[in-house]
Amino acid sequence: MAYTYEDKLNFIASIYCSVRRVAFKKDVSWETILAQAAQETGWGEKILIGTNNIFNIKADSRWKGPKSKHLVWEDKPDGTRVQEYHDFRNYKDFDEALEDRVKFLEENQRYHKFFSNGVRGIFEREAQALEDAGYATHKERNKATGKFELVYADKLIEVFRGPSMRRAIARGESSGQCTIVNAVFLDDDNSKEVNKEVEIVIDGNIKIKKVTDSNAIIKGIVVKPNGIISFKKDNIIVPAKIPSAKAPLNIKITKASTPIADKLDQHNGNPSKRETPVENSRQTQTSIPAPNADNGLVSFKIKFVEHDTNKSIENFSYGIFYKNKMKEHVADSRGEEQIRAESGAKITIYVKDFSGKLTQKIEEFNVQENVLKTIKIPIREIKVLIMDHSSTKAMGNYHIISEYRGLKKNKYTRNDGSITLKGLAGFGVKLTIPSGQVVLPETYFDNKVSFYKRALFEKYEQPAFVKTTPPLKADGEIVVSKNKTAPISQNDVRGNNGHPIKLVSKEGTFEVETYLDTTKALASNLSYEIVYKGQSRVHISGSTGRKLHKCEINQEIIIKYKSGTKILIEKYTVIENMSPIKIYITKSKGGFNKAIFAQTLRANSTAKSRGLCAMYVRLAFEAAGGKVNPRPASAYQYVRVMQDNEFREVDKDGYTPQIGDIYIIDRFGSHVHGHISGYDGSQWISDFRQKGINIYRGRPTISYRIFRYYD
């Protein structure tokens, strides 16, 4: 799939919060980091596969972590460019790469100017310091002097100030992954506290010391959505709950006796145009009064968890009934909230009932000081009976789409037209059909209502039951997993006049997330196979462990991947706003990176043969993680190498090439060494780019074998 403009914007948006967090912690310019990330990787497109190395930092002798070898372009002093193999650092994720980027600069003496006073934290000066230190070697000819000059600083500034970066930053700010806060500090007499040291605790676990600037401001504090910041100055702690926001927020920190408002001033546009934060005095019941602000009250904490998994429920909406008053509250991103009330007083917790009102009672308890009260939200069950428009006929085996906690899933009614839904009390569920018609509006799980009878608004005919696709034949270690969606054809939509409505195919997308089955963590460069409309294709997950695919809505797809010693097969029906498909893949020891294999083949090949097929395929094979020991003297002898590296021979009948496949021709006649080539996803390549799989056309007696690696 081609890397699009939207992919570029999404890459910057995806790392925006992490970049701001690292920049604030290390006192460096976040603008420099973002500009470098875009410049070094082509906005995410050219991240070296399998590395998560945003800044393409090489692995020299000082690097003790994981590394991998890649063929890259290098600029020489005379202005020429050549390709060379180099080792590059590997990171588990982008956050680790961002942290190491600053550490790398700190540990290299040649970048000392970057961290000097008057440079550190100022974008344009940091960019120039990187160029002066030789961070990048690319030069361009100065038209006035005719000399080649370094242009790295100009490139970074141009990238950051361009319209694409502005769009990407706006997307990152509005993603809801973090909130950026600027805080101004005022004394009791409302005077600015300039050059004041403040200890900041973010979300309860990140402690940073900062000094206010000449305007008494600390800029760029990064907090989770609905998170908490505590400011400690002069041995007084002032807490503030920060709401989720789609643009930087400005807050005023005053004397400790004044509670901090959790509804803060929000502005639109470029943050740099508005330097001085302003105060908004509006407060809510989630504010935390300062110590001794109200006598007789004690503090305790409420935490909400799922009843069946004990997982925290983030941003949970609930009600507290206290002193004959009901108030709605929202827990933070950890499912927690700090509450102040009279010791021993009775508190009752309510969640939304079936109609969305706070009347569903969950728990009642008496207040105790400094106690963490964990409340388990129970599972409720709803049974829905789907009838036709006249409410006379049950719609059996009917395709329904349920939406619960932001996730959509395919479901099918039973023969009697019923469907059972389960969910946490107080959470809503909505039912629709693929055409978009709402069958059941958002209804909250409530123990008082356990049954609904819903009629369709248009005329429909019950579809004849369509058998699911027959199981794929087991082949060796290949097995069939459970059919995920029971794909039933539903061509029964009719208009008011009873005539069938032609269903027009609609383009959609679905995302695949690849996890290592051993660690259950997102992992990049894992391969899986997708069968769509009878066509099979091998894909490799991107650097984030995720990959987006295009597909028509309501079409069936089949995904194959390695689990243990078996190849699992899963079936899905694609729907709109489909939640990511998560697959847990077993990675073979050593592994073979098909994408790097293909990339290296393409980089080294030419248009004509040089008689060096074995050497060029071996170079790509080794770059991808393959082991060649001992090294064969001829191409045909690589059959043993394939077997030693856990490649399996592919049946030639009905064969369709896939990326990473290797084709070996046995020796014949005057061709005493045979031939070997690899498939890069679009063509066969050895030391040259072949026009087809068989370069010896007209010789049907040639013996050849095809090998494939299943990771």
TrEMBL record:
The gene is flgJ. It comes from the Bacteria. Pfam families: Glucosaminidase. Residues 260-292 are annotated as: Disordered. This is LysM domain protein. SMART domains: LYZ2 (SM00047). One of its GO terms (biological process) is bacterial-type flagellum-dependent cell motility. Residues 278-289 have a biased composition (Polar residues). Keywords: Glycosidase, Hydrolase. Its EC number is 3.2.1.-. Residues 262-277 have a biased composition (Basic and acidic residues).
